[in-house]
Amino acid sequence: MKKVCMVVAYHPFMDARIFKKEAKSLQKKGYKVTMIVPRMNGSLFDIDGTPFRHNYRSKIFTYEGIKIITYNSESSTSLNKVLSDVGVWESQGFNHPLVQLAMKEDADIYHTHEYLSLFAGIGIKRLMKKQKGKDVKLIYDSHELTPDPLSTRYTKEANDNLKQKLLIMLDEVDYVITVSESIKEWYVSHKPGLPVEVIFNSPPLAKNHRPKEYISPKLIMGFEGNLEGKQNSKQKIIEITDICSKKIDFQFKVIGGSRFNDALTVPSHLQSKIILTGWVDYHTIPQHMKEIDIGWVNLENVDQSLNYDYAMPNKFFSYLNNGIPVVVNKCHDMEQFIQRHQCGVVLEKKNATAQDYADVLLSLNKNRKKLKLMGENGRKAMENLYSWEKMEVRLFAVYEKLI
Fold first, then answer.
1. What is the DSSP letter of 238?
2. CA angle, 166 as apex, 161 and 172 as ends, to 5°?
3. Predicted confidence (pLDDT) per residue in 96-146, tens digit
4. Is the Cβ–Cβ distance between 388 and 321 less than 8 Å?
């Protein structure tokens, strides 16, 4: 039985992509899967950022058949040595608990998920060869493009350094997995010989699906995901609801929403119009989606983030999976997908206002046949091409090539 070690720098251990999709699929396929995951201030944390105060206290435990090994993320800053001269990497950068614990697992394939866990993976691969004489395979699962060439988070000098170090690390990577076609093209353009596979953040196909009929006079827009720190999106939810509910029977349903310390405050006059489910179990999302008529994706500051322009978010596929057409602001990859499959509407603005969205919704409300057709097109695309059942075939193919 081949051993796989998921190497994680900051994602929660029950992350939908890492644990619920990839790790569980590999386990099902017959791989022995271990995950090495961080504790923050001594605690593991839920997908909404809430720390587990009383659960999962053991350093090592088994969860749904997968071995979970934990470490304190604050215990060492050595992973930050990635930005130092390459000559000091082995002397100062690879003494991190993430590297040491991963090596003890003696896995065949190490699957990393962030820029810093990739650096840990470089250390694992080098030290496994030096100390144990074992050639291991290294996967970089690039959930986003780091560094983002358009981001103003870092200075140009820091961004250039991050990119230079990434290109050096990629020379030791055996396979890159990423989440959109444009991010794949970025990697291939910089490293033409590097094998790259796109595995979209799509859910398992929703069971017992029934196409929506759009016969109710009410129109319900839905949002799935995280609103933490996204004040513009929160304000737009309120404004869209205010505008639309004055003209039609309208509600806005938020599945997930804000994290535990960052609540969405709904004005009193819209209390009955904005439905907040809070964070729900991953497997119950299709049930919560049943009453939603249109799904909303609003990515802020697209002109300052290549990741947003290239994004194919979980929520995008979640809507389509449940036969729900999508409305999005102008982002390259989602726009191309929507045009290809005729499953939604793209606004002609990167920074769309609440009024822009409301105008589209009020127009679509008058054309229920179009809504129904777009929803059916999206569901067919998921059934035929994009559901997790299709994506895990790609995942297995990557692993089989490496083995």
1. H
2. 140
3. 999 999 999 999 999 999 999 999 999 999 999 999 999 999 999 999 999
4. no
- Which range of residues forms the domain containing residue 27? 3-201+387-402
**Under 8 Å CB-to-CB from 154, ≥6 apart: which residues?**
147, 162
Question: Within this chain, do residues 157 and 261 fall inside the same structural domain, yes or no?
Answer: no
User: Is residue 268 situated within a structural domain?
Assistant: yes
Mean pLDDT, the chain, whole residue set: 94
Regarding whether 248 and 196 lie in a shared domain, the answer is no
pLDDT of residue 97: 93
Question: Could you give phi then psi for residue 398, rounded to 5 degrees?
Answer: -60, -50
pTM of the model: 0.93
One domain for residues 359 and 237:
yes
Compute CA 175 distance to the chain's CA centroid, rounded to the nearest angstrom: 19
Collapsed DSSP state (helix, strand, coil) of residue 46: coil
Closest-CA residue to 47 (of 205, 263, 282, 233): 282
Task: Give the β-pairing of 294-297 and 326-328.
Answer: parallel
State whether residue 145 is helix, strand or coil: coil
Structural domain includes residue 139? yes
Q: Which CATH number covers residue 78?
A: 3.40.50.2000
